[in-house]
Design brief:
The complex is a heterodimer.
Chain A lengths: L2 E13 L2 H18 L11 E13 L3 E5 L6 H9 L6 E6 L3 E4 L12 H11 L4 H15 L14 H13 L5 E5 L7 H16 L2 E5 L3 H7 L2 E6 L2 E6 L1 H17 L12 E6 L2 E2 L5 E3 L3 E7 L8 E8 L4 E6 L13 E8 L5 E10 L6 E4 L3 E6 L24
Parallel strand pairs in A: 3-7, 3-8, 5-6, 6-7, 12-19
Antiparallel strand pairs in A: 1-2, 1-4, 8-9, 10-11, 10-13, 13-16, 14-15, 14-17, 17-18, 17-19
Helix pairs in contact in A: 3-4, 4-5
Chain B lengths: L1 H22 L6 H20 L7 H28 L1 H4 L1 H6 L5 H29 L7 H31 L2 H16 L13 H8 L3 H10 L8 H33 L2
């Protein structure tokens, strides 16, 4: 099967300075007008490369996740592929009809009703007659904004605008589909419908998808590229791309102290296989973990929570002392917590300790976190991956 | 492909007209109000300066010229402003929908055609009201309508040449507002165009994109030829060539400009 998108040696630059940006744009316009050349391919003062030598191709049925941190060049890459930006070097070859979900609510006239705006968009997409009427009905049904569909857009909530924008932009059957961080719109039910719609579109198209949401990427994509400072660092399976993304996110988090609250009240040591863990080292999958928490500065009977967070600081697990009917002795200084095994997918994580009042209402303290990494075989982008006792059972077929 | 572009342009024009009607209490009545105000002021001042004497046919022709000149100038400058601002105005749609820039220009042109048609109707209605005889020669009417077309083409050309620069520099918008009055003053609106092929005023009118068409309109309404007919035709042909070149350039210019406008 031939590629629907071919990105060949793509380079794109931007200027950091407004004055020089305008000056260069004026020069580029003059060059385009009188010399017939589109762009100046050399780096000029105050310019930097936002994309560097990108090469990849995409076939029908492939859903490519473009991952990377802010400023990595993800949106620039999408705009170049969509033809909204012109490449400074290299080329993007597209074979087939292009559809994109970029800035979906853009261009809605505020004083016109949702129906009128959708009608204009449909006409601009080349629809007319029954085709247009069907398009409007499909958008109305999908957006599900009831009577507001016939009200001016200026009276919509931001969620309603996003719903209408997504609905109006996603009723299409492109060969190439480009999606930029658009699925986080509306409530959970609408988001699930968005995923469903994207899956429908992706079945017969080559899709490029940009998102910071690991869940969305894991759900939708079957291939991933990881970008850093405009370069492709990885191109391959989506799970590995997610792993790399989380790994890099872990690098960033290790440099940060994280959010703390009266951190001097509580401190703790991480024990790995009974030994004191040195921050920066890695743990193998299945390593036994425990914490020794210094509680000497805390009042008796407070609730102690041990929080396991992933690289994006989402809490994955919570061990709460309130669940254990913990009896506080007369005098104690160290509370030992056996956390079990590190049955986690390879990536960056951290532990922190949160102290709540005995009734669990007031926040007493939040410690600094201890970052760590888990190594081992990578299977899927689900952080907690427990082992189990697996066995085959004999089946008596005669009975 | 071509019909898609035309249809998209028409859709955008209808959208723009509906928005204007919704956003203004008087809607399209403004097309009439401004030139009528100008004409009323002109009649009043002219009558007072001539000592309140009875109106003559020549005096009525002067009023008709001023009325036609102002109403068409207003239309011309509006087209220039709208086309020069189209990239900034429609950047959301340019980014968000898979549609090229040409329909947006065509939308303004379609609106311009409607606006010029309304204004030409107003001028024709004003002829009997002012007591001026209608031109009898068919050729005069041909020149009248060709001049209107020349105005539309020159406005589109000027607007399209300014459009990329209007994105980069706000000065363009300010300059267009600032030069309105000087253009009125140097154009044959409140005075007749010199009908001789020499002198600075003649050459000024040749290079002033609205002067020749206004001079030809004025003369055709009198059933008379004008020295500006040939220059107007040549200017229009030149404008058409530049217009085609500008249309071709747009696809290269838009990505550069969208990038400079940022997010």
């Amino acid at each position: 099967m031939s590629a629907l998108i071919e990105v060949n040696g793509l380079w794109k630059k931007y200027s950091r300075n407004l004055g020089s940006s305008v000056k260069y744009a004026a020069k580029d316009l003059m060059r385009a007008a009188f010399l017939g050349k589109d762009v100046n391919a050399e780096l000029r003062e105050s310019e930097f490369w936002a994309l560097r030598d990108m090469n990849f191709s995409l076939r029908r049925g492939e859903v490519l996740a473009v991952m990377g941190h802010n400023g990595a060049g993800k949106s620039t890459l999408l705009k170049c592929i969509a033809g909204k930006l012109v490449a400074d070097r290299g080329s993007v070859v597209r074979h087939g009809e292009l559809g994109y979900l970029l800035e979906m609510s853009a261009g809605f006239a505020q004083t016109m009703t949702g129906r009128d705006n959708v009608s204009v968009r449909g006409r601009l997409m080349g629809k007319s007659g029954k085709d247009l009427a069907r398009y409007i009905e499909e958008v109305k049904e999908f957006a599900d904004i009831d009577v507001f569909f016939d009200s001016p857009v200026q009276f919509y909530s931001s969620g309603m605008k996003s719903r209408l924008g997504f609905a109006a932009s996603s009723v299409m059957t492109p060969d190439i589909l480009i999606i930029d961080e658009v699925l986080a719109v509306g409530d959970l039910a609408f988001r699930l419908r968005c995923y469903e719609r994207i899956n429908e579109l992706a079945r017969n198209a080559a899709v490029i998808f940009v998102s910071h949401s690991i869940g969305q990427v894991a759900r939708l994509c079957n291939r991933g590229v990881y970008l850093e400072k405009g370069r492709v660092l990885f191109d391959g399976g989506v799970q590995q791309a997610i792993s790399l993304y989380q790994d890099k996110l872990g690098d960033q988090n290790e440099k940060k102290r994280g959010h703390v609250y009266h951190a001097d009240l509580v401190s703790f040591d991480l024990k790995v296989n009974g030994e004191l863990f040195t921050p920066g080292k890695s743990l193998g999958y299945g390593t036994a973990m425990a914490l020794d928490i210094d509680v000497s500065r805390l009042a008796d009977n407070v609730q102690i929570r041990v929080l396991l967070k992933d690289a994006s600081q989402s809490v994955l697990m919570d061990w709460n002392s309130a669940r254990c009917n913990l009896e506080w002795p007369e005098a104690t200084s160290i509370l030992h917590v056996d956390l079990g095994r590190a049955e986690l997918t390879p990536g960056a994580y951290s532990f922190s300790v949160q102290v709540m009042s005995p009734d669990g209402v007031d926040h007493v303290s939040l410690s600094e976190s201890i970052p760590f990494r888990v190594t081992g075989d990578y299977y899927y982008a689900v952080p907690v991956q427990r082992t189990a006792q697996w066995s085959f059972k004999e089946v008596d077929r005669e009975s | 492909m071509f019909t898609d572009v035309i249809r998209s342009g028409f859709t955008l024009a209808v959208r723009s007209i509906r928005l204007q009607i919704k956003q203004h209490a008087l809607g399209y009545a403004w097309v009439l109000i401004t030139p009528v105000l100008y004409a009323a002021c002109y009649i009043f001042i002219k009558r007072e300066l001539s000592g309140g004497s009875a109106p003559t046919v020549d005096g009525a022709r002067d009023v008709l010229r001023a009325f036609a000149g102002i109403t068409l100038f207003q239309c011309w400058i509006q087209i220039v402003q709208d086309i020069s601002a189209f990239i900034r105005t429609h950047r959301g749609l340019l980014r968000g929908i898979n549609v090229g820039p040409i329909p947006f220009v065509l939308a303004v042109v379609f609106e311009g055609i409607i606006a010029i048609a309304i204004r030409s109707l107003l001028i024709i209605i004003a002829i009997p009201i002012l007591g001026v005889p209608f031109p009898l020669d068919l050729v005069s009417w041909v020149w009248f309508f060709f001049s209107l077309l020349a105005l539309l083409i020159s406005a589109t050309m000027v607007g399209l040449l300014l459009a990329p620069w209007a994105v980069l520099y706000s000065d363009v918008r300010k300059a267009l507002t600032s030069v309105s009055l000087p253009i009125i003053l140097i154009s044959p609106i409140f005075y007749p165009a010199v009908e001789q092929t020499a002198g600075a005023l003649y050459w000024l009118n040749i290079f002033n994109p609205i002067a020749s068409p206004l001079a030809v309109i004025s003369s055709s309404l009198r059933d008379a030829p004008s020295v500006y007919m040939l220059p107007m035709v040549l200017f229009t042909v030149g404008a058409l060539v530049i217009l085609c070149w500008s249309f071709k350039m747009l696809n290269r210019q838009i990505p550069i400009l969208l990038e400079r406008m940022g997010n």
